[in-house]
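Exercise: predict the structure of this protein bound to fe (ii) ion.
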Amino acid sequence: MYAQLIKTARSGITPRDEMTDQEREFQDRIDRNEKIEPKDWMPDDYRATLIRQIGQHAHSEVVGQLPEGNWITRAPTLERKAILLAKVQDEAGHGLYLYSAAETLGESRDELVRLLHEGRMKYSSIFNYPTLNWADIGAVGWLVDGAAIVNQVALQRTSYGPYSRAMVRICKEESFHARQGYHAIMQMAFGTPAQKQMAQDALNRLWFPAMMMFGPHDSDSTHSEQSMAWKIKVKSNDELRQQFVDQTIPQIEYLGLDLPEPGIKWNEERGHYDFSDPDWDEFMDVIRGNGPCNVDRLAARQKAWDDGEWVRDGLMAHAKKKAAKLAAE
Amino acid sequence: MSNEWPLWEIFIRGQHGMSHRHVGSLHAPDAEMAIKNARDVYTRRNEGVSIWAVEAAHIAASSPEEKGPLYEPSNTKVYRHPTFFDIPEEVGHM
Ligand SMILES: [Fe+2]
Ligand SMILES: [Fe+2]
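Solution:
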């Protein structure tokens, strides 16, 4: 998802009789659905895994501004421009809430940003795909934020208090994101044949990358077991992906668009839609840095950071000078 | 050069006369910027009419290890709750 392939800082799951008393007490709190708070004792690996997951989630919010920010100056109307601007601004806020949650674990925001820029931390694979035209912007709100919502609604129940509270706040803002995207796509799907074709094309191109957001199959997701036991993760990748497909197919049908791939069929027996796998080799390749936009995205982040340095330093110097003057009075 | 802005905790009072509530944190070079940033981040949808910003380093917090001794005294003082007292129904609502 916004955090894919998070390596749990511990391999396998620790059996109860191998836990220390402190660890057992900690696990009991989790099992009782108590929230863990910043100053509470926690296993080092729980802390490390959380920092990785929340950090990657934060990076995804921030990098996720780039494909949409790309279209702010070219939105088709002033109203759409204002809406997109507000949506992208929300994403900056989401990044902030999440960096703040990570900071309660003792990791500074500057450090997380440094790890991102050095390529040592990731962000969601979805943002390494380009937004080629205005239909893509509608499809991103509809499908990408739609997929993010499925994941983030589940994460509201995550065991770490600050992460859970950030998710609650984010979820309140996300439905605006999905709805403005669907609304933009509706206008195209119900517009001229050429507009409808653009909407179809955007759906076709973004479908599999959106499916990849949930990460590999549970059977290939070796790290999730301990994360699930600690309730850092709440639902499995496959569960969340199925939920996304089931909720999205009727939305496609309402638009009168064709399904994006031939494997999608209602399965009466399961009570769910069947669907095809995305190309997992492509997914791994994008994660490794070889997607269509990886280099651009990271370069844009690095440039923003470097170009902003004089502002950050200048404001800090001004604040220190003012404080010194006040102290001298 | 790392010159990280300090962390501030943000408290917001909503429309309906409730107390300020902690809503989250942010980084800012000084109090003035902390309040401006809090306006942008935490009141984009009419969440409040008043903002407090407190530098995180100035917040004193109770420690979770002392939870037992800190709150135990209140457990034994059940008479602090109105339901401790049986008032006859004839008296009416009290
Ligand atoms: Fe977001
Ligand atoms: Fe969003």
